[in-house]
Design goal:
With 207 residues, the protein is α/β, with parallel strands linked by helices. Helix content is 32%, strand content 26%. A 5-stranded parallel beta sheet has the order 6-7-8-3-9, sandwiched between helices. Strands 2-1-4-5 form a 4-stranded antiparallel beta sheet, covered by helices on one side. The chain binds adenosine-5'-triphosphate. This is ABC transporter ATP-binding protein.
Length: 207
């Protein structure tokens, strides 16, 4: 269970929120909504311990997220930013790279498993041989989502997963996140998309 309790954050001298609290139960898809600049991305970064909170606490399974525990916590998380910085030139390298990291030792990479995830996400197999720069923003994010699916971490944080997508693909992404949640992952997604939020198990709107 992820618990955010009475937190405040200060970014660049501006107070983003004061006394923000919510709980996300395991295996649920939770949506963070709110106007542009209200602090949604900063909140996701705080959940990873990359931003400091001013008061309150964040806990995961009853353990406090602190500057010293954050690195360990991140081993159990996947994060997909709105515009992922992609370190590889080729899609085939991009998808296999995370499996070479020490943090993901023991997680198998297989092309056939990947293609199974791609089918759920509406991605064509021919993308595998393409250059990353040739993918659209929506395709990039879905490719990263498929990798998160294979990594199968307990907590998935994703920023605006449907903002670059048409309605059909948005539905596939929501269905995919729900599939990951039904398998046991907890998903926290930032979104402006009302239809997406309606398909989540819970939401918070930051004012
Ligand atoms: N590194 C930083 N230093 C200073 N201020 C920052 C930093 N990152 C974000 N901010 C400020 O914090 C506020 C919240 O930014 P954030 O990106 O979290 O908002 P958001 O709700 O995700 O916005 P959007 O929906 O437009 O992506 C903004 O006013 C932004 O300018």
């Amino acid at each position: 269970m992820l618990e955010v309790k009475s937190i405040s954050m200060d970014m660049g001298g501006r107070q983003l929120f004061d006394g923000l609290s919510f709980v996300v139960e395991d295996g649920k898809v939770f949506c963070i909504m709110g106007g542009s600049g209200c602090g949604k991305t900063s909140l996701l970064r705080a959940l990873m311990g990359f931003e400091t909170i001013g008061s309150g606490y964040i806990s995961i399974d009853g353990e406090l997220l602190t500057p010293s525990s954050a690195e360990q916590f991140r081993r159990y998380m996947s994060y997909i930013p709105q515009e992922p910085a992609l370190p590889s030139e080729w899609v085939r390298d991009l998808v296999s790279l995370p499996f070479e990291l020490a943090a993901n030792r023991g997680k198998p990479f297989s092309k056939s498993l990947l293609f199974g995830e791609w089918e759920r996400l509406g991605l064509e197999r021919e993308l595998y041989g393409r250059k990353v720069a040739e993918l659209s923003g929506g395709q990039r994010q879905r490719v990263m989502l498929s990798v998160s699916g294979l990594l199968n971490k307990p907590l998935l944080l994703v920023d605006e997963p449907t903002s670059a997508l048409d309605r059909h693909s948005s539905g596939l992404v929501l269905g995919y996140l729900r599939h990951l949640a039904s398998r046991g992952s907890t998903v926290v997604a930032v979104s402006h998309d009302e239809e997406f939020a309606a398909g989540c198990d819970g939401r918070i709107v930051i004012s």
